[in-house]
């Protein structure tokens, strides 16, 4: 009877360890760029301009959209390496590059459009809504 309890205990430990491995790492920590970011660009011809980044991070690859009052645009290419976000957006009006450093839960950095415009920006991730009762 004692051997059965030991064997059952070992099976439970093995199953729990297997479940942890299958579940993988916590995606929120492994993908800090994923989510919605409310941002402001400084230095545009129209003054400060709010924009929204909707990002999905998979490893070092970042995809998603950039939204402004003029509409949304798909991110053409994007990476997040060593706490630095680097995204490119190609639209009819030109090519934008946005780079930013992730520090203290916020992003800040530089933006440029082709060779003729540039400025700075910063952004903060919006709070994730918690289900009712939590």
Provide the descriptors you would attach to this structure in a database record:
134 residues, alpha+beta, Lipocalin, nine-stranded antiparallel beta sheet, 55% strand, globular
Overview of this protein structure:
With 134 residues, this protein is α+β, with helices and mostly antiparallel strands. A hairpin with a 2-residue loop joins strand 3 (61-68) and strand 4. The protein has two helices and nine strands; from the N terminus they run ααβββββββββ. The radius of gyration is 21 Å and the shape is globular. It has one domain: Beta Barrel (Lipocalin).
Summarize the structure.
The protein is of the alpha+beta class and 134 residues long.
Level-2 CATH architecture: Beta Barrel
The coarse overall form would be globular
Please write the CATH class name: Mainly Beta
The succession of helices and strands, N to C, reads HHEEEEEEEEE
Cα distance, first to last residue?
Answer: 43 Å
According to CATH, the homologous superfamily is: Quinohemoprotein amine dehydrogenase alpha subunit, domain 2
Say what the CATH topology is. Lipocalin
Find the count of extended strands (DSSP E, 2+ residues): 9
């Amino acid at each position: 009877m004692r051997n059965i309890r030991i064997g059952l205990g070992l099976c439970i430990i093995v199953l729990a360890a297997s479940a942890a491995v299958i579940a993988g790492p916590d995606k929120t920590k492994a993908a800090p760029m994923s989510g919605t970011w409310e941002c402001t660009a400084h230095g545009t011809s129209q003054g400060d301009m709010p924009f929204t980044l909707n990002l999905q991070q998979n490893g070092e690859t970042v995809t998603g959209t950039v939204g402004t009052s003029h509409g949304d645009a798909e991110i053409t290419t994007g990476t997040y390496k060593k706490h630095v976000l680097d995204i490119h957006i190609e639209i009819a009006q030109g090519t934008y590059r946005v780079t930013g450093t992730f520090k203290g839960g916020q992003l800040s950095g530089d933006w440029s459009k082709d060779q003729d415009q540039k400025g700075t920006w910063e952004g903060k991730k919006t709070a994730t809504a918690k289900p009712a009762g939590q």
